[in-house]
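User: Let's play a game. I give you a shape written as tokens, and you guess the letters that built it. Ready? Here's round one.
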């Protein structure tokens, strides 16, 4: 299945959160294909560079960057040619929906489900789902 993995899921995996770890692991094992685009990559890099956010994290900065490099190696790079502007409450999250539509993703996996799911434009084939629900609905 093609999915979009929101930044908060990748951060959760770095922090050792079980469901987030499992989502990233299923991607690394080839069970799901994560999409990556310019805006999402910039967000990943920005957040991973915030050392204060990762105080007490099991991975140091170099290890987080290495995990990102490994994750990027299995992501499908996707260009966004059309801005749908789904009008999410947080304008900065619109790129997630646009990436999902451009890459024909079936799901956006996020901890920010409440905001991302409140888009004004509706895409019936796209679900916005928590990592726990995603793993439950897509057992290996």
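Assistant: Ready! My guess for every position:
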């Amino acid at each position: 299945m093609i999915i979009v993995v929101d930044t908060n899921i990748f951060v959760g995996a770095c922090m050792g959160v079980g469901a987030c770890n499992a989502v990233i692991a299923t991607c690394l094992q080839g069970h799901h294909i994560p999409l990556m685009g310019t805006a999402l990559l910039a967000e990943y890099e920005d957040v991973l560079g915030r050392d204060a956010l990762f105080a007490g994290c099991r991975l140091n900065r170099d290890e987080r960057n290495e995990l990102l490099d490994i994750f990027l190696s299995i992501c499908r790079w996707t260009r966004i040619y059309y801005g749908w502007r789904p009008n999410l409450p947080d304008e900065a999250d619109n790129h997630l929906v646009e990436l999902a539509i451009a890459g024909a993703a079936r799901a956006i996996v996020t901890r920010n489900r409440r905001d991302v799911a409140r888009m004004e434009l509706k895409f019936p084939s796209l679900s916005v789902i928590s990592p726990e629900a995603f793993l439950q609905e897509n057992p290996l």
